[in-house]
């Protein structure tokens, strides 16, 4: 996938605060345009690069059968099932891109040529309550 200098990536491990980070980044890059943010769903503002990998042919066919005759739903499904790199190629700049892929699987020049916000957390850390026995 060719990178553009004004691309903005939000990269994270799943369940690490990705969604609120996407919203925050988009609002900052869009001069806090809350009305536009409310009018366009977050999924339409960002391309999830590997989302199509989560849709097996069986799931895709089942969802298409459930939505037979609903052209708007089928159109959205066609968009979501397309490879993220194809969707990104069609986007105008600046592109907002989301990924859960590890940095080792992303383009090697990503950090040198685009803006990347990497979200990290320790998902195994749990709050601990320590009781003193005095």
CATH class: Alpha Beta
Radius of gyration: 18 Å
Determine the mean pLDDT: 86
Compute the number of structural domains: 1
What global shape is seen? Answer: globular
Q: Which structural category fits the helices and strands?
A: alpha/beta
- CATH fold title: Rossmann fold
**What helical percentage do the residues reach?**
40-55%
What does the main sheet amount to? 4 strands, parallel
Unreliable stretches, pLDDT < 50, 5 or more residues? none
Number of strands: 4
Beta-strand content bin: 5-15%
CATH level-four homologous superfamily name: P-loop containing nucleotide triphosphate hydrolases
What does this structure look like?
The chain has 134 residues and is of the alpha/beta class. The chain has one domain (8-119): P-loop containing nucleotide triphosphate hydrolases (Rossmann fold). 40% of the residues lie in helices and 12% in strands. The longest helix has 12 residues, at 18-29. The termini are far apart.
Chain-wise SSE layout:
Blueprint: E1 8-12, H1 18-29, H2 34-39, H3 42-45, E2 47-48, H4 57-66, H5 71-81, H6 84-90, E3 96-99, H7 110-113, E4 115-119
Parallel strand pairs: 1-3, 1-4, 2-3
Short description:
The protein is of the alpha/beta class and 134 residues long. It contains seven helices and four strands, in the order E-H-H-H-E-H-H-H-E-H-E. It has helices spanning 18-29, 34-39, 42-45, 57-66, 71-81, 84-90, 110-113; strands at residues 8-12, 47-48, 96-99, 115-119.
């Amino acid at each position: 996938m060719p990178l553009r200098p004004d691309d903005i990536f939000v990269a994270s491990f799943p369940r690490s605060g990705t969604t609120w980070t996407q919203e925050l980044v988009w609002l900052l890059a869009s001069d806090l345009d809350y009305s536009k943010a409310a009018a366009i769903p977050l999924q339409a503002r960002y391309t999830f690069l590997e989302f199509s990998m989560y849709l097996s042919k069986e799931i895709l066919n089942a969802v298409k059968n459930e939505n037979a005759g609903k052209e708007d739903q089928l159109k959205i499904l066609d968009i979501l099932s397309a490879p993220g790199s194809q969707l990104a190629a069609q986007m105008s700049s600046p592109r907002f891109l989301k990924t859960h892929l590890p940095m080792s699987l992303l383009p090697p020049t990503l950090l040198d040529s685009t803006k990347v916000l990497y979200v990290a957390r320790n998902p195994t850390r749990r709050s601990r309550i320590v009781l003193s026995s005095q």
